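We give this protein:

***
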Amino acid sequence: MLLLHLLLLLLLLLLLLLLLLLLLLLLLLLLLLLLLLLVLLLLVLLLPPPPPPPPPPPPRLLLLLLLLLPLLLLLLLPLLLLLLLLLLLLPLLLLLLLLLLLLLLLLLLLPLLLLLLLLLLLLLLLLLLLQLLLLLLLLLLLLLLPLLLLLLLLLLLLLHHHHHHHHHHSQ
């Protein structure tokens, strides 16, 4: 009996560790993406402007950004979808685990298992809350992402314009 309980506890701990690892991985991925964004922006900013010929061509910055934006969005979307999928799967997994424990409880009818079950239920509630929070955060991110990109675009345009203007004055 005791061995079985220990095994169950180990299983639970492993599951929790796995979940934590998944969350950490997702956070890392998001951080990497943000870094990538920053690097790309820096690259775009630091690139020397093309030598100005008499007819003013469309700014290279704008073209670059227009090329980069779809790529970045394409990169971000699958990740966000993956995150959503994982979040939706978490409670299901936990419910399955709970069902297994219930079956064991029915088989053994022991107080220790009852306690374990109560703990698991609490855990599940906490995870559901966490999931809701994460979903809200995701939605916020999805809403803020275009806004941030727009702001960055505007900023770059302003910088470019300013630079261009200045150049014009010195001649």
Q: What stands out?
A: Residues 113 and 119 are 10 Å apart (CA to CA).
